[in-house]
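User: Can you predict the 3D structure for this chain?
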Amino acid sequence: MNSTDNIPSPAHPTDSGTGRKLPDMTGAPMPAPPSRHRRATLFIGLGILAVLAIGAAMTAPYLLTGTASAAVIKIPRQATSSNVCDTLSKYFGPDFAGRATKAFSQLVKNPAERYGAYDIPEGTSPVKAARILARGSQTQLTLTINGVREFLPFADRIAAKFDFSGDDLRKALSDPELMKRYGLTTEQAPSLFLNDSYYLYWTDSPRALIEKVGANYNRVWNAARRAKAESLGLSPAQIMTIASIVDEESNQISEKGRIGRLYINRLNAGMRLQADPTVRFALKDFTIKRIAGSHLQAPGPYNTYRVAGLPPGPIRTTSVATIDAILDSSPSDDLYMCAREDFSGFHNFASDYETHMANARRYQQALDRLGIQQQP
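Assistant: Here is the predicted structure, written as C-alpha cells:
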C-alpha cells in the first residue's frame, strides 16, 4: 500500500474528527462585502422605522388612552367637525373631544353624513369613540308608554327623545288621513300608543314614529280581537276608549273585564256611562278623590254625566291585558258599581239602583270616618 493512499483528496475534504465529507467550497465565489450605497440605504431604512416607532409610541397614548363615561352623542343634520367636537366636549371634556374629533375627521370627511344618535359606552377610548361615530350605526332609543293621561301635552315629553318638536308630533296626530289608516279619528289618536316599549331612532320623524306604534296597534288588533269586538257591537276604537276608563277605575286586573262589561251594558241600555274618571279628565284634575255634585257640571264632551255615549276618545293609554279582559268578559246584568268600603281597590257591583245606593252609603260612611270631605 502506498503511504499516500489514506490522505484525502483536496477535491473531497473530510472532517478530521468524523471522516464526513465537507461541502466543496473550492469552486464557490466568496460573497462580496456590502457596498457603501447598500449600507447607507440600510441605515436610512432603519432610521425611518425608528422614527415611525417613536411616533407611534407617542401617538398611541394620545388616541387610545382616556376613559369616557357613558353618553349618547347626537350629530345634527348639518353637523360640522366643530359641532361634533363641542358635543363630545360637553360629555367627556375638551381633551377627549379633541382626540376623538381628530380621529373622526380622518375617517369621515362630511360629519353631516353621520346624522344620528350614538351610544358611547363607559370606558371608550377617543379612537374607539371616533370609530363608533364613523360607522354610522345608530343607537336605538326606547320609548315607554304606560298609563299616559292628557296625551297631547305628553307629546312634548315624547319629542324630547327625538329630533322633532311636540308640535310636529301633534300635527301628525291631527292628520285625519293618517289616522284613518288605523280606523281612528284624530280624537282617538292616543289609542295607537298602547302601553308598551317601542324601539326607534333619534332621527325618526313623527310619521315614522306613528307608523311604528301603529304597526303594533294593528298587530294587537288582529282578526281574532276584531271579531270579538264586533260580537260586542263595538269597534276596536270604542273598546280602547272603554278600556281607558276601566284602567282609571281599577288597578285590579281580575275585575277589569267585569267593569268593562258594565259600561257596555249601560251603552246597550241607552244609559249614560256616568264614569267618575271622565269627570276628572274633563276638569284636568286627577287628584280629586271624591266626586261631588259641582264636579258633575264639568263642561266638555268627556264628562259622561252630561254627555250620552262614549267620550270622543280615550282618557288615557291602555294595555293589551285590559283589552283582552273586556273582550273575554262574561255576560252580566251589572249596571252599577261602587268602591268597596274596605278600600281594597275592588268594587261592589249591582244590577239595580237600590242595591247600588246601599253599597254607596257604606262607602261614603267609610270616607267620612277617614275625614275625606265631599266638596259642594
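The first strand starts at residue 71 and ends at 75. Residues 68 and 93 are 9 Å apart (CA to CA).
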